[in-house]
Amino acid sequence: MKAVKRPPVITMQPESVTVFSVEDLVMRCKASGNPPPIVRWTKDGLEFNQGSDPELKVSEVTASFPFYTLSNTMDSLKQYQGKYVCYASNELGTAVSNEALLITDVPPTLQKEKKVHVKSEQGSSIVLKCNPPQSSMEPIIHWMDWRLHHIQLSQRVMVGKDGNLYFAHLTTEDSRDDYTCNVQYLATRTILPKEPITLTVTASNSVVRNKRPQMMRPAGSHSTYHALRGQTVELECIVQGLPTPDVTWLWKDGEMSNNRTMKDMFDRRLRFSSISESDAGEYQCRANNSQGAITHTYTVIVEAGPYWTKEPVSQLYAPGETVRLDCQADGIPSPIISWTINGIPVSATDKDSRRILTTSGSLILNDVNFGDTAIYQCQASNKHGTILTNTNVYVIELPPQILTEDGNKYTLTESQKALLECETFGSPQPKVIWERGSDSLLADPRVNLLTNGGLEISNVTHDDEGFYTCSVQNTNLSVNAELEVLNRTVILTPPQALKVQAGNTAIFTCLALFDPKLGSPLIQWRKSNQKLFESQSDEKYTLEGPDLIIANVGPDDEGVYTCQVITKLDMAEASGTLTLCDRPDPPVLLQITDPKRRAVTLSWTPGDDHNSPVLEYVVEFEDQGSKERNWEEMKRVSGNTERASLPLWPNMSYRFRVIAVNDLGKSDPSKPSEIHKTSPEAPENNPEDVRSESTDPDNLVITWEEMDERDFHGPEFRYRVLWRRVLGSGPTWHINYTTAPPFIVNDVGNFSAFEIKVQAVNEKGDGPEPDPVIGYPGEDVPLEAPMDVGVVLMNSTTIKVTWAAVDKKTVRGHLLGYKIYLTRTGSRGHHRGRRAKESESTMVVETGANEEKKVISDLRPYSHYTLAVTVFNSKGEGPASEMLSFKTNEGVPGPPTSLILDSPSETEMTLHWTLPDQPNGVLLGYLLQYQRVVESDDSPMQVETIDDPTVTHLTLKSLDRQSHYRFYLRGRTATGDGEPIKKEGATTLDGAPPSNISLSVGENSVNLSWVAKKRHRNVNFQIHYLNKNDGSKWKKTEMVNSSQSFYQLQGLTPGSLYHLRFTYSNITFWNVDVETEGTGVTEVQPSFATQGWFIGVVSAIVLLLLILLILCFIKRSKGGKYSVKDKEEGPMDSEARPMKDETFGEYRSLESDLEEKRTASQPSLCEESRLCSEDNLDFNGGSAITTELHLDESLASQLSRPSEGPEALHGLPDNSPLNPTTVSSATNGTPNSVTILD
């Protein structure tokens, strides 16, 4: 393919340039093609031969063709100003570049200036002018002081687009002598400092007056702004006023988008970074402060230079084909389309009927031939500029080829656009066909066949996965492509809009779902489209998984935060805002308006809400006449309200204040309002809860709830107290006055009812007429006891008590009722020949005031009782009536105290019980009922009657061994059968050996475990075991109890095969073979230690040692100083030396025995030997031989377990690991040491 000819293509367009120095004059134009193109230039439409100009130098760089100047002066460069066009030509045509404008300019310089001194008064506005030098470059203005520090800008002080410094109003702090305007030009890399300006602000002699907002820039109320599409546009509103006005922007055609516009310079500028036709319209800036508002309207007109909406495509054509070059452009005003061929206008070429120019701007070439090969230029022009595009028409005959490799795999995520490539080459243009099995691809509106042969699938889904085939029609050329569709990345939890108080921590969370085949995604956080990185020093930003943590939030942290989840194939993003918020500022300018007799209207101006809307306002008041009360809440109104109607009390001096509340808390209170006073009036209410609280019998105490001072409504406030007796006093009221409760009336006489009332009065009048209430003087205890007290027996546990009502006068108070004192003194009967001893118990029953009889239940049958009745009021009880005795009848007994079940056999059950705690009469016997427990609960009840009350057990026979029974046992008296005691149980079955025994084999032991059978008696069984490896005899264990559930067979040989046999009552019930773990022991040949002659020698040595021991003992007994005869003839010691306690029939511990065993094993006969010590050789007038018998430690430990008795030891087989080799009968099978005396 390298030999194929290619038309020229301009790869580097010449660029417009402003020349400030000789080094800046460089024009470049780069082109490619085959054969290599030749480049030429035109200037202002005329041929420009840069090579023939001695002032210019042409570079030798291949296909780049730059030229630059050799001149040393700027004056010589003016001749090169103009519009330049580059042409690149080879035999296939000529490509034309865009126009490039070359302008020469002089670098800006400062002119000599006079020092400026400005003087103004505090509160006025002023403008410090910069006046930058004239230049074709846009300057950047910096206002700085002599230390090169920027002047602090704010809503009050700011820089205009014209470079001037504007003050909305002056303060005395603005005075300084070094306001310096620094003008920066980026193109020439220069900064020009202007002459410093001195500003003097004089303090005002009077209070600085507030001023309404006024426009400083632009002037007037309306401006028109013309802009070109794609430009950066800034609308500006600089205002003066005191206090500093706030500026807001409004688009009259709709709501402004944060993506299209941005506010700058403290909201004084509205910026469009790339303005479009849709941004045209009217924009209004509104400036307002507490004194008023002013507006300025911008009419923004957006026009556009030409831009392409459809460009013609370069392509190969075969002779005879029809070529259609579509060229469409748009702009404001609409551009004009024109065509050139190889840079020559179509109108200037020979007329050809095959060429047709449509009204829409398309160029049609019919029946093309090789001579139509050329580069066609489409040009779109309006008053704002011209654009140009080159299109290659190459008429040639070439065989078709597919340039795209076979087997390409395209991996995308859902909703993306797939572009399956199938690049072909040939002339005429090969016709491409795409197929996917038998599916018709072009029937899907998402599928589009591109002119370059590619297949475009929009909004792909998993259903689009698979293999696609691209083939060239009428050939056997084809390639395959595979499409894989993965799940698209989705943000499940996007960052939220956060409102955070300064100094706190903000946390944005971004959780995403992604396809595992994409690998772990990268989470990139941005603030205002700038990347954020984790802070290393100040820990400002911390990234923890899906969280962005912003510490110590401040004003600079406000903005839009975007989370980008980036995978290899796609990206998902979501944004949240961070707004700094705080408690609101307090309201200001409180005003009291619309005063009425009992109400006023309070209005206020809201303070700054600090980005958190005010939810409500709290209105508080303070009573200037009360020193005890502080500020109190009066009313709450919603946050969108700026006034409140307040109800007032008479005779008060008010001050008000307002507190604003938002989500972050309450503001500080506002400054208090001016004082507002209300006039006094007569009371509107009387005191509440008027009552008597008398305690002394002769006094009437009248009291009430004291009224709030605010309800006094005027000076000289008092309470008027009125009272009179309900009966006997007539209508006359007794009146008195007091300033506080209570009020006491003395010597009122007998207890009776009074009407009482209390009225509020002040110097302006009386409160409303109060309603009387009934009150009483204090009570005293009743004087008399109830009369005619009687008792009627209703049954063994219930009586009815009657009495005559007392005289109300003797009660001396409110009759509350009667109290019946009922005392049980004991039982009537004898139990087993002895009187029941019980402590007395008294119950008290209260009745109502109007009752004269009372039924009392739950008495004990067959008991002695006494009864008395008293009357009582709130003061206490009167005297008791005469004591009345009675006795209750015999009743049914209570249940037996206990019931125990015992099963002597499988079909028998013995019941044992104890007497009832409460016989409630003479016990005659018992009634036993029992039945089998079945699911249907309908088994027949069987009955046994016991007529002897002394019987406390009973055996039931012929019971079903498989069933459970439920027993009911109750006592009997002459009255009837009592409450039963209930019990469930079953007989105990005969024992059986365990089944399902589990084994766990070790090196020297086997662990056996089983589950003990319920309801079965415990039995003993034995385990016989045989080592099949060493040919030894059968061995057997001790008796094992079936209730143990576990047994360990010990003393086995590692690595050996054992046969176990389990027997019960000499019958084998289970056999099993087991092999112990570990390595087997090799049989050792009998050594001399097991020979008979060696045993005989050792026995003789032991016998000799025993004789020596006896001789030593005899010698020690004689003391070694006297002959035997002297000893015998000597006087007998009257006090024979006693034998030590521990040598006479004492059992010693196993540890002591083992210790002696270790000591005694030493064969030494020296004097230090324990065999010869006094502790072991004691006598009492004769000789004593002490023999210690020691048992093997393993035997001692085995015998220390619970056993069946002495027989268990004797039943052990010889040589068993559970039985010692020799055991003296003197030990009786115990592991202790025994001392034997001759």
From TrEMBL:
Membrane topology: Single-pass type I membrane protein
Principal subcellular localization: membrane
Subcellular location: Cell membrane; Cell projection, Growth cone
Any one GO biological process: axon guidance
Region (Disordered): 665-697, 1122-1144, 1195-1238
Biased composition (Polar residues): 1216-1238
InterPro entries in alphabetical order: FN3_dom, FN3_sf, Ig-like_dom, Ig-like_dom_sf, Ig-like_fold, Ig_I-set, Ig_sub, Ig_sub2
Ig-like domain residues: 8-104, 108-198, 213-301, 306-394, 400-486, 488-579
GO molecular function, one term: cell-cell adhesion mediator activity
Transmembrane segments: 1093-1114
Keywords per UniProt: Cell adhesion, Cell membrane, Cell projection, Disulfide bond, Glycoprotein, Immunoglobulin domain, Membrane, Repeat, Signal, Transmembrane, Transmembrane helix
Compositionally biased intervals (Basic and acidic residues): 665-679, 1123-1144
Fibronectin type-III domain segment(s): 586-681, 686-780, 785-891, 895-991, 993-1087
Transit peptide in keyword set: no
PROSITE patterns associated with the record: FN3, IG_LIKE
GO cellular component: growth cone; plasma membrane
Function (record text): Neural cell adhesion molecule involved in the dynamics of cell adhesion and in the generation of transmembrane signals at tyrosine kinase receptors. During brain development, critical in multiple processes, including neuronal migration, axonal growth and fasciculation, and synaptogenesis. In the mature brain, plays a role in the dynamics of neuronal structure and function, including synaptic plasticity.
Family statement: Belongs to the immunoglobulin superfamily. L1/neurofascin/NgCAM family.
Protein name: Neural cell adhesion molecule L1
The species this protein was found in: Scophthalmus maximus
